[in-house]
């Protein structure tokens, strides 16, 4: 059995058909064959499936002047999926790939509502399995465009599950970056968005921060020495126009508090690694000795101090940080916070609420 879809859309100009009649530029025609997977136990088309098709055609029919900012709420998408046996493994847990496919679907629809075109998924960040879902669960999938940049947009997606009358469980979330390609395969400019007050503004600013973090640095784990010591390669952009990017080979060590009142310490310093010598691609920098100390002030507050010995290689970066011209400090502290959350079992002195 096969399914067939046919879309006719004209987003910019009125179209003169063979019969000599004009069509509305936002008109979309869609045809679908109803398959068994689209029906309920009475062999009737399920309402949810019908609404999904209606939602898809509705988002394709939207026509917006690209010079106007689109309210983010107009990109919001919500879908409900029923987890059936084919969606789960032998332990009746929903396949992670299936959840990801559903999340990508709603994110793509949200992105298409912004650009009135077919977006291309480029990256997925911070995709976390927060908890399982099972056969019989209903999954609520939500997506919204958080921010647009010159040639890309970030869509936030979350998946929640429930069974019967039980409360919602947050099981997955991710940030997906989309582009829209022109006829030559190049990313085309995207229209701006207008964030809603409060939550929309928060998502807008956080998406901007994540964009800066992605541009500011690239960190790659090279060697896990032991449970507390790791060697990373960190790449940072040049502070001068046209200059080479810098890379650092850093040993990162963590030390939990020895006694009540002692700080949690994260120390960094450059090391020589024969397997990763300096290359022509990067200018090899050096960090003499740096790190963080984290003191618990109370059960809800922690004090984080950052220390750095300024060698000539890192001084320009510290100067731009102090001048407020770089987001690397924000990146560093976000990474530190995430590090503590990821290692919460070994840092029981600190709870997520203290970060």
UniProtKB/TrEMBL annotation:
One of its GO terms (molecular function) is long-chain fatty acyl-CoA hydrolase activity. One of its GO terms (cellular component) is cytosol. Keywords: Cytoplasm, Fatty acid metabolism, Hydrolase, Lipid metabolism, Repeat, Serine esterase. Residues 73-184 form the HotDog ACOT-type domain. Pfam families: 4HBT, START. It catalyses: butanoyl-CoA + H2O = butanoate + CoA + H(+). SUPFAM superfamilies: Bet v1-like, Thioesterase/thiol ester dehydrase-isomerase. InterPro entries: Cytosol_ACT, HOTDOG_ACOT, HotDog_dom_sf, START-like_dom_sf, START_lipid-bd_dom, Thioestr_dom. GO terms for biological process: acyl-CoA metabolic process; fatty acid metabolic process. It is found in: Cytoplasm. PANTHER family: ACYL COENZYME A THIOESTER HYDROLASE (PTHR11049), ACYL-COENZYME A THIOESTERASE 11 (PTHR11049:SF1). This is Acyl-coenzyme A thioesterase 11 isoform X2.
